[in-house]
Specification:
Strands 1-2-3 form a three-stranded mixed sheet. The chain has a domain at 86-145. The chain starts with a helix and ends in a 24-residue tail after the last strand. It has 166 residues and is mainly α. It is elongated. 46% of the residues lie in helices and 11% in strands. The chain contains seven helices and three strands.
Length: 166
């Protein structure tokens, strides 16, 4: 069949289906014993499940239905680090990874790493207050990573950088 003939055949089939639907007997409704009104389900003032919902409430319900509360809480630790630990600590540290309840935190200096180790219990309490208990069970705090001299695809094994000026 060519294009115009195919279009005509589809149109004829749709018109035949419409005519058949119009000629079929209509179902009676509860609203008025066949007077054409349909039962809409809910009526009157008051809350209705079809009412617009708050986005946060809908999102919370979806998280609970799918069992995503723990991954969402873990993401909050990273996404809202400043809110979780406070602006001063957040300025000098950052979360690196969270694995089986152990949060690895990198401090900007070894002095800050020592300070954060002393504040570990306080940090765990503030994290638990913000994201829930048993999301972070332990902190692994370390200082900044040492510079790596392993640059480039090929390198020679050796002692690393040395004094080459004399």
């Amino acid at each position: 069949m060519a294009g115009p003939q195919l279009a005509r055949a589809v149109l004829d089939a749709a018109l035949a289906k419409r005519r058949a639907a119009q000629q079929a007997p209509r179902r009676r409704t509860q609203a008025g014993e066949g007077d054409g009104r349909r039962l809409r389900g809910y009526s009157g003032p008051g809350p209705d499940p079809r009412d617009p919902q708050l986005f946060g409430a809908v999102l919370e319900r979806i998280l609970k239905q799918r069992g995503w509360q723990k991954p969402a809480a873990e993401a909050t630790v990273f996404g809202a680090w400043e809110k979780v630990v406070g602006p001063d600590i957040a300025k000098h540290s950052r979360p690196m990874k969270l694995d089986d309840g152990v949060l690895t935190v990198e401090a900007e200096s070894t002095a800050w790493a020592t300070q954060l180790r002393l504040l570990a219990a306080t940090l765990l309490r503030s994290i638990a207050a913000e994201v829930g208990h048993n999301v972070v069970k332990r902190l692994n705090i370390h200082g900044p990573a040492a510079p790596s001299w392993n640059k480039g695809p090929r390198r020679v094994q050796g002692r690393g950088p040395r004094d080459t000026y004399g």
